[in-house]
Myosin motor domain-containing protein (Apolygus lucorum), 993 residues
Amino acid sequence: MFVPDACSSNEAVHLQQRLRSLSSELVTLRNRLGRQPGHPEGDAPPQPRGGGGGGGGGEAGEKEGGKGGEVMASTCPPDIDDLIHLQGPLTEDALLKALAARFHSSHTYTNVGPILVSVNGYTDVGNPLTLSSTRKVPLNPKLLRVVQEAVRHQSESGYPQAIILSGTSGSGKTYASMLLLRQLFEVAGGGPETDAFKHLAAAFTVLRSLGSAKTTSNSESSRIGHFIEVQVTDGALYRTKIHCYFLDQTRVIRPLPNEKNYHIFYQLLAGLSSEERVKLNLEGYNLHNLSYLKCGDTRQDEAEDAARFQQWKTCLGILGIPFLDVVRVLAAVLLLGNIVFVDSGGVEVSVEGETELASVASLLGVTKQMLLRGVTSRTHNARGQIVRSFCDANMSNMIRDSLAKALYCRTVATIVRRANSLKRLGSTLGTLSSDSNESVHNQAEVASQHASTVGTAGSKSSKSMAALNNAVRHATDGFIGILDMFGFEEPKPSQLEHLCINLCAETMQHFYNTHIFKSSIESCRDEGIHSDVEVDYVDNVPCIDLISSLRTGLLSMLDVECSIRGSAESYINKIKAQHRNNARLFEPKPLEPRTFGVQHFAGRVVYDATHFLDTNRDVVPDDLVAVFHRQHCNFGFATHLFGSELKALYASETVPRGVSFRISPTSHSDLLNGDEPVSTLTQDFHTRLDNLLRTLVHARPHFVRCIRANASETPRRFDRAIVMKQIRSLQVLETVNLMAGGFPHRMRFKAFLSRYRVLAGHNELRRCEEKAVEDCQTILQYLEDKQLIRRPGLVVSWAFGKRHIFLSEGLRQELESVRWETLHKAAVSLQSAWRAYQARKRWPALKRSLQQNHHPPPSAKAGRTLVTNSTLTRPRPQPIAGTPPPDPLEKCDHKIIQQTCTMFGLDLERPPPVPPSRPYTVTGNTKLGYPQTRVMKMPFPDDGSSDVSLMKGDTVTVVGASPRRGHLVVEHCNHNLHVPYQFLELKSSPLTI
Ligand SMILES: Nc1ncnc2c1ncn2[C@@H]1O[C@H](COP(=O)(O)OP(=O)(O)OP(=O)(O)O)[C@@H](O)[C@H]1O
């Protein structure tokens, strides 16, 4: 085997690069052959050592574990924290060993250049997986780097950033996203003691219980996709927004046999007090006699669920959401499942579960008769004639289920909206059309609104100014988004929701392919750059087309089938005929009339289409919606859940009139053009996914690829076959190939110069636009001559295109590290020059005082002091600020300021008012006003930089919030001190969230 010499020459590096590229081409070819649709062995684990086709490697140090092929040990050095530095031929086997070695030495994060690979070690299973519960988990420097990069890029360019987590279900996306969010708060948001953090943590606790459930692949699986948008302005966190994607409605009424319903139901039953149970008509009910729960897994840890329920209740309080309103709806949903309609032989159906019917009616604030009528009768519009009819038992049971689903998902949407809006702003300008409002965590927003209204008259204009200001801010400020969408799943049987979830995973995979592989290959081709490495990635567009193409995609054909009231069988026949030559659609064995299979990028999934049409229609009849109008319903929260629909329905005189509405909440504007639902479940999901992509396309992505270490959630178990399957589907080898030997980065010449011109001697560069390419060459030549960018084993190469300079990842890393060293050295020499200057300035006085001490004047004879005045008053060295102050000439053009002020109606002479600070802090679930008595947890200031100091244990008075982020104002000895939150503790210990 070729081993590079310690001081390898360029040829050696080049040779090694060729060797890598050849071996990886071979492996990729083998994988592609093996992974053709219809080749079940495509997903097989690699051959054991000596089995041929293991792709080289496969040397000593690794033992096959028992059944699962568990890797017990490996000889790969765990200190290789970036896979592009791996020596020897790059094969899947080599990657697997490297990841296993790091995993066994507790290094679960590994880089592939700028991309982070995270292997879930399952050491934290059983944790509720919220922002608060991960507070004790130590933050990892690799996650810190991702966040710092995002914040740096955002503040340098103002460009939105998106941290995109992907991986199969259970791979740790939500866990990593919580840690990233925490890290973001550490870097830019004042830490976890701020109100903003507590508020967001409470929102996540509430949403996790409502939106996560046990599935076959993950006992804490998120059934709600999240996109957390964090607005960062000048490196400081400004506001947050949670966008939620709720798909899995069927789980509310029919969890799969080995899975569970939403966690909140189990927590509710375990955590309610006996009085609350009576109030909610839940006395005597448990997991085994409630229909919506008993069809799933009925095992439960009651103590754990009860504890989580108490936390959930506390957090609802923090968000200002009435507990009783929400639990009334949840109890009604549970009891609805026990109402069964059966055909009586007559016109009307008969009811089994009269008690439950009465209970549900009273919980929802309607009469039993009204509810029964809403569920068991339907109004039809037959060519303008309004006709009423009774539903049969089947239809009545379906309407009952629709009601349960509608109540649940509308409650979740309402909570998301409420949780998202500490302060709701008029503008919905932004990025996505999801259930999201804005949560303003910083009083700067108020300030900006105040500022914008100075000099304008009337509330109308001030509102529009606020909206305009908001729009300008949104247009100019980038956000940092953390995307934790659904991971690939293959439950048995898979349903329509799973098809949507897998479409989402396919779309994210395509996004990755486009960004990492396609754009790199295409831009090299466009600019005539030749790369030695041929990156051969698997494009998943055919699968996305199969599912979502406009006319012939599986989803479009399903919509057509719904509109003609077809059946599951006819749908299956049509898709099989339409796609008979498409290798991605296969017939599962044994052949069943209602099933079909799709070869996804991460594996083959068999779907059962039995409920596809009903799930996709996603409708509730207006007869049922009308029941919740305030004329008949005295429970305001229930009326609110159907607010938009009721408004549209009661806009006309005939109610009900035979129209249907969506189960999922629909915005009022969508209902304006008619009362019929504007879309189906899948259309709606597709539109939202499209909007999300539009947002992502405008953001700079940072990828975190998550891998689960085993399929049984066993801590510290590394299952070779499971990991290998994910390495393949996530195309880790192809990524390493590109990063190690190709040109994954390109920069405009100007951008390259502005970042790296500090690396060449000042006189070396021409510094004019026409000579930009020459200057780039000069910088690289200069670094090469000084031997600053060549490291053995690292491919450092570049090429000049028509508009860009193309860089290998190795070169980018070297440039960044030389840049850091150069800036660091420059900072040190500036500091030392400044200190020397200061010392020289002080020297005459110092010299004089030393001389005086040597010949003391008679007056000082008795109490001789050796400490000179100048030593006492010597100022502490100030840290050099990270960002230099803005160049006044660049930023403060007086004319522009005047024009801007005129445009926004601001008065230049009068400064904007000081932002009013919030007159309280949030503690547990209560707001606590000022003054507050607090105790110092540690001394302040801890560096003795102030005359007044507070000691640990001192009782102090907090008089208000400081304008400084994350600080409170403490009045002490007639001084006002700005003390960070974390230094202070309330006298009576607060409830933590
Ligand atoms: N880095 C880690 N260290 C320890 N435990 C982890 C880690 N990542 C995830 N886990 C645990 O693994 C389980 C699954 O993680 P998580 O729910 O984040 O996966 P996911 O990819 O978001 O899955 P889904 O797509 O189904 O929501 C959780 O119980 C979590 O606590």
Notes: Residues 108, 120-125, 127, 129, 167, 169-175, 218, 220-222, 486-487, 706 surround adenosine-5'-triphosphate (CB under 6 Å).
